[in-house]
Amino acid sequence: MEDIILNIDDVSKAYTGHQALDGISLAVPRGSVYGLLGPNGAGKTTLIRIINHITAPDSGTVTFDGHTLCQNDIANIGYLPEERGLYKKMKVGDQAVFFARLKGLDKKTATERLKEWFAKLEIEDWWDRKVEELSKGMAQKVQFIVTVLHRPELLIFDEPFSGFDPINAGILKREILELRDAGATIIFSTHNMGSVEELCDNITLINRSRNILTGNVRQIRERHSGNRYELTFIGDPGTLVGAVEPMCTSFTLGQIDRDGNATATARLRETSDIRNFIAAANSAVELRGFRRCLPSMDDIFVAAVEEYNSKN
What are phi and psi of 98, to 5 degrees? Predict the structure, then answer.
């Protein structure tokens, strides 16, 4: 049975004239990276505020580590909001120690851990500089460190790569995966679907205050593949078409490269057996490659939102 660290059950929240959340349910497995997705205004920030005990749901329950979420649980949650702020006139190291002590660490432990993290993220030379001298990316690194320093069980990152160049985004992705591998659970709120494919084990897509798609990222992509496959082969394209076309709802030939390798994309009928398809293709031409065409999370995101909006 899967170990669930955070369970959201039928949670709703309304503000004056606005339904922010409408019966949201999701379960976050321990030791995973969980993507919380949705267009602007969908309700993600409200849900994050509820998880952080900043506000309470009107109905439904939130269970953390097997019990009803309470104020004491906040010590086991680290939150990096999208809108971030540091005291510009303080020295970077002094400010980081200050925030670490607010999280319950003594000065000695805080300083030791901070020095380690500053070295990992390559900002150790900035310890005695003022915050106002930091670039946006540097400041984000400091805030990331402060968020994870007290080693909480649950980490919530809201658009953590905003403003980062590809190199520093890659460094942060590596650290997020290392935190997961060390046992932390991470909720990752973003619009960057490429990062979702790289990092997330599971996702929930919220749109217009409701959960419209939940599941394992790989399984969701396979479910939305439309039974499409790509072939690479050497041989006569016409012979291949004659052999496999009866098993397909569509079959599109691609280009032939300088080495004679050709490509084709096939959408199989629901009644077609994939082993029979491969055997037929391989008897007609020399089959060099065969793979399932998985749609990107970006394509799935857009399609799911458009489909939901068209029906509601």
Answer: -60, -50
CA distance readout (Å), 195 to 100, 145, 242: 28, 20, 41
Q: Are 30 and 4 in contact (CB under 8 A)?
A: yes
**Nearest to 233, CA basis, from 186, 192, 266:** 266
**Can you give the pTM of this predicted structure?**
0.86
Q: What pLDDT, on the 0 to 100 scale, is given for residue 162?
A: 78
115 pLDDT band (50/70/90 cuts)?
very high
Q: Rounded CA gap, 101 and 83, in Å?
A: 22
Alpha helices in 103-187 (DSSP H): 107-120, 136-148, 166-181
Residue ranges of domains in the chain: 4-222, 226-292
Q: What is the CATH number of domain 226-292?
A: 3.30.70.260
DSSP structure string for 193-209: HHHHHHH-SEEEEEETT
Beta strand 18-29 pairing with 185-189: unpaired
Cα(105)–Cα(160) distance, integer angstroms: 24
State pLDDT tens for residues 171-219.
899 999 999 999 999 999 988 888 898 999 999 999 999 999 999 999 9
On whether the CB atoms of residues 266 and 276 are closer than 8 A, the answer is no
- Residue pair 157/187 in contact (Cβ under 8 Å)? The answer is yes
pLDDT in tens, 215-246: 999 999 988 888 899 999 999 999 999 999 99
Superfamily grouping for domain 4-222? P-loop containing nucleotide triphosphate hydrolases (3.40.50.300)
